[in-house]
Each structure stands twice: as structure tokens, then as C-alpha cells.
Design goal:
This protein is of the alpha/beta class. The chain folds into 2 domains: about 15-160, 3-Layer(aba) Sandwich (Glutaredoxin), CATH 3.40.30; about 170-300, Serine Threonine Protein Phosphatase 5, Tetratricopeptide repeat (Alpha Horseshoe), CATH 1.25.40. About 55% of the residues lie in helices and about 10% in strands. It is built from 13 helices and 5 strands. α8 (about 200-215) packs across α12 (about 265-285) and α11 packs parallel to α13. The protein is elongated.
């Protein structure tokens, strides 16, 4: 799952079948003449249901059976916990944006004490993902929007489901400005977005790309040769790294700057470190070259 949201479930670590059977028995005792509810159709298609409220009494039909065919995300919330209410509303918006590709089940802990106990919840807000009739991942505590998007997307992918990736109109507009060569306008747009969404990896990547493109216009074509000829020339090393990034030789660019971090100290060292972090953003945290370079940088810094 996402690096931002650690998993607590693996395989069949938590089994809700006993809770479901208990609720089913209670329903049969209270309404013995009621016809049995049909199981949802098989085939793995999304349910089309965006969100619903769930209680202990509806776990069987609204959570477990529904999760046999689609991803179900259960958010546990309580009025006395503002963070959990915010998480509930955020997930409601994400579910609406994805148009029923997965279902949000909203569980007020006051009416879902048995379910919360079965899942071994220790704090709220808590969010549990279920697929194939069993829980597959759990997060507890507040999470930024981008982390939740990534978490849901990875779980859906693992479950063989498709979740439409929504494009934020502000980010799309900023990217278009960058593509049109309006670098100042693009930088201002990304800066504005980051002030309102400080955890946005997409905006950070866009801003890093804008700055790289701006520097690219002043790069000498032989920047790498110049830097190789004078290894202690910091400006030459930074220029060469930019050119290597643009040429698709990111690993070489990272190694060049890490070598500068190793030999420098003070403000110059910090300048190179910040440039490295910026270049990491261009590729994204999941890039294997970035992961390898981060490990190398850590050994140099610490």
C-alpha cells in the first residue's frame, strides 16, 4: 500500500464472518418471516453506490456482501471528533468524484461498536478498506487528501478494480500554462495551489518542472563536459545535473550532486541538497532512481 499509510491487515488477519453471522441470527430472530436477501451479483463490477450509512445490523449486506464485487471503504467517525467528521466529508467527496467505482460506508462509532471492536480499532478517524469479503487495509488518524487518493487507488488496483483518476482543474490549468511556455504564470499557479494544498505531490512536481524548464534555457550544451573538467565547480555541477535530467540520465545527475554534497559544507551543501530534493520531485517518490538516490544521500548526510 501507500508509504504514507501503513497497512495493519494481511491476508485473513481479521475475520468478520462471526460478526456477520451474529447479526444475521439476530435479524432472523426479530423477523423470522422475512425473505432472505439475495447476494449481490458476481463478476467484480463496481456497485455504482457512492456512499451509504452503515450500522452493526447492516454489516452483512452493506459491507461484507457488497465488498465481494467492489471495493468498500468504511470510515469510522463521531460528532465529538472534528477530525473524523472532516475525514468522512473528504472521503464522501472522493467517492462522488469516482462515481461509484468504490463505495464509502459511513459508520458512526456510537452505532457500530461491535464492528469497531472486531476490527480492533484504537482511535478515530479510522478508515478500513474491504475487498473480497474481508478487510485488506486500515489507516488510523487524519490523512491529507493526496495520501488518501493514493491509498484508495493502490487498493483498487490490487483488487483488480478501476478508479478514475480525477484531474484537479487548478492543477490542469497550471500544467497547461507550463506546456504553453508561460512559465511565470505556471509557477504562480502552482505556488498558489501549494499554499492551499501543502501536501500535494503533483503541485510540487509541477513546480519543480517549471523551475527546471526555466533553467534549461540558459544551459550550455556542453554543461556535462564542463562539469567533468572542473569537479569542484558547484555552478557547473548544478547545470550538468539539470542537463542530465532533461536527457533522461537522472541517476547520473543524482550521483553528480550527491558527490557535491559529500565534499561541501555549510550554505553550499544546503544549496545542493535543496536542488536534489527539487529534482527528486520531478520524477516522483515512486521512481526507483529516486529511491536509490535518497538512500545514498542519507548515508552522506547522516
Amino acid at each position: 500500500m501507500s508509504d504514507n499509510v501503513p497497512s495493519r491487515f494481511s491476508g485473513s488477519a481479521v475475520d468478520l464472518s462471526a460478526l456477520a453471522q451474529q447479526q444475521q441470527q439476530q435479524q432472523q430472530q426479530s423477523a423470522p418471516s422475512a425473505p432472505p436477501q439475495a447476494a449481490p451479483p458476481q463478476g467484480g463490477a463496481p456497485s455504482g453506490v457512492v456512499a451509504l450509512d452503515v450500522t452493526d445490523a447492516t454489516v452483512q449486506t452493506e459491507v461484507l456482501e457488497r465488498s465481494l464485487n467492489s471495493l468498500v471503504v468504511v470510515v469510522f467517525w463521531a460528532e465529538q471528533s472534528p477530525e473524523s467528521v472532516q475525514m468522512r466529508d473528504l472521503l464522501q467527496r472522493l467517492a462522488s468524484e469516482d462515481g461509484g467505482a468504490w463505495t464509502l460506508a459511513k459508520a458512526d462509532v456510537q452505532h457500530n461498536q461491535q464492528l469497531a471492536a472486531a476490527l480492533q480499532l484504537q482511535a478515530i478517524p479510522a478508515v478500513v478498506a474491504l475487498a473480497g469479503g474481508r478487510p485488506v487495509d486500515l489507516i488510523q488518524g487524519a490523512q491529507p487528501e493526496q495520501a488518501l487518493r493514493q491509498w484508495i487507488g493502490k487498493i483498487a488496483q490490487a483488487a483488480g478494480l478501476e478508479v478514475t483518476e480525477q484531474v484537479d482543474p487548478e492543477l490542469a490549468a497550471a500544467e497547461q500554462k507550463m506546456l504553453d511556455g508561460e512559465l511565470d504564470a505556471a509557477e504562480a499557479a502552482y505556488d498558489k495551489y501549494l499554499k492551499n494544498n501543502p501536501a500535494s505531490g503533483e503541485a510540487e512536481a509541477g513546480l519543480a518542472q517549471v523551475r527546471l524548464l526555466r533553467r534549461a534555457g540558459a544551459l550550455p550544451q556542453d554543461a556535462v563536459r564542463i562539469a567533468d573538467a572542473d569537479p569542484e565547480n558547484l555552478d557547473a555541477a548544478l547545470a550538468a545535473a539539470d542537463l542530465q535530467i532533461l536527457a533522461g540520465a537522472a541517476a547520473d545527475a543524482y550521483d553528480r550532486l550527491i558527490a557535491q554534497v559529500r565534499r561541501l559544507a555549510g550554505d553550499d551543501r544546503e544549496r545542493v541538497r535543496k536542488r536534489l530534493v527539487e529534482l527528486f520531485s520531478v520524477a516522483g517518490p515512486d521512481d526507483p532512481d529516486v529511491a536509490a538516490a535518497r538512500r545514498k544521500l542519507s548515508t552522506v548526510l547522516f
